[in-house]
Specification:
This is Transposase. One of its GO terms (biological process) is DNA transposition. It comes from Mycolicibacterium obuense. By secondary structure, this protein is an alpha/beta fold. The chain is built from 12 helices and 7 strands. The protein folds into 3 domains: 111 residues, Ribonuclease H-like superfamily/Ribonuclease H (Nucleotidyltransferase, domain 5, 2-Layer Sandwich); 95 residues; 121 residues, no CATH class. 59% of the residues lie in helices and 11% in strands. β1 and β2 form a beta hairpin. α1 packs across α2. The radius of gyration is 25 Å and the shape is globular.
Length: 350
């Protein structure tokens, strides 16, 4: 089997083909367009054979169209995390950094790691991710404007009342207060920033409604977990992308950062420590579910209390609860995926 490593950029893609021993065979640079992708495919098939595996650096912004074209041509495509590519490049005997060097490192990383995730996107979860990314951007912009507005209000009056600017009544009350205050440039700028916050909030609320409808259309059962709302479910769905790319629940737990890692030597045999790696957004979603379950009268709270009675610390018991929730999330994601596939065997892949 020939592995073709791809170093993807906005305008060009550099390809390097290697054999089963990791030896470099050929390299080529093509345009980052559908025409360039078909040129790359024809080049690889004519030079080698149909037994190809394409390894692309995991940069979805630059590789989505490439993956779409290759999957449409029934090619096998795997995603190589950037950290793996960088480690292979550092261990190589070739000095420096260039597109061919990076493409070679991507190919060799795919050769060394046999269980890399296979590139696949279904239309529904991809569109859900686009909506979540847009909402995250707007929330970040609103927070930045609210921080600037807070400093301006302190200049006007250090004893200004605290209003919840995420809600319309709070924004209206602040607008009336600013209108009644002295007509200064600071008040004028504060009113403009308040208008920005109002616009951001309306857009965020509209996106929330669209996200909730898409979660319902997907028929997700994640919302049946205590503490998992529509936004949390959407975060888990779009972060997972294709749940079948995980070998088992343990691999999924490692991906979201709730699986402990070994840290022992000699007499400390069996010692495990908390890992800070993994998808932090999905880890935060599990944390939200865990905190809600602990606060309410749920099976999760009873499990948490049993861990405390068994001698665990609060943090340790909470980590065990997150691991338990992770199992439930994986099981539901897998069941939802299989149900959609059964309902529509022609489930689209982009």
């Amino acid at each position: 089997m020939i592995i073709v490593g791809v170093d993807a950029h906005k305008r060009t893609h550099t390809l390097v083909a290697i054999d089963g021993s990791g030896s470099k065979l050929k390299e080529k640079t093509v345009a980052a367009t559908s025409g360039g992708h078909h040129e790359a495919l024809n080049w690889a098939i004519s030079r080698f054979s149909d037994d190809l595996m394409w390894a692309v650096e995991d940069s979805r912004v630059n590789t989505r169209l490439l993956e779409h074209d290759l999957l449409g041509a029934h090619q096998r495509v795997v995603r190589v995390p950037t950290v793996l590519m960088a480690k292979v490049r550092r261990s190589a005997r070739t000095w420096g950094k260039s597109d061919p060097i990076d493409a070679l490192a991507v190919a060799r990383a795919a050769l060394r790691e046999p269980n890399l995730p296979v590139a696949e996107h279904d239309t529904e979860t991809w569109e859900l991710k686009l909506l979540m990314d847009r909402r995250d951007d707007l929330v970040g912009q609103r927070v930045a404007v609210m921080n600037r507005l807070s400093s301006r209000l302190h200049l006007i009056d250090p004893q200004v009342p605290a209003w919840n600017l995420k809600r319309s009544p709070g924004r209206q009350a602040l607008q009336q207060w600013l209108t009644a205050s002295a007509d200064t440039l600071i008040s004028e700028l504060a009113l403009e920033e308040l208008a920005d916050i109002d616009r951001f909030s309306h857009n965020i609320d509209a996106l929330y409604n669209r996200i909730s409808k898409r979660v319902a259309l997907l028929g997700s059962t994640l919302t049946g977990i205590a503490g998992c709302g529509d936004l949390t479910a959407a975060r888990l769905i779009c972060g997972t992308a294709n749940v079948t790319r995980f070998r088992n629940e343990a691999a999924f737990a490692r991906y979201v950062g709730v699986a402990p890692v070994p840290a022992w030597s000699g007499s400390t045999h069996g010692r495990m420590v908390l890992t800070r790696s993994g998808n932090r957004a999905m880890n935060s979603a599990l944390q939200t579910i865990a905190v809600v379950q602990i606060r309410l009268d749920t099976p999760g709270r009873r499990y948490y209390l049993r861990r405390l009675e068994g001698g665990d610390t609060k943090a340790g018991a909470r980590r065990c609860l997150k691991r338990k929730i992770c199992r439930s999330v994986f099981t539901r994601l897998l069941a939802d995926h299989r149900r959609r596939q059964h309902a529509d065997p022609r489930h689209s892949v982009v």
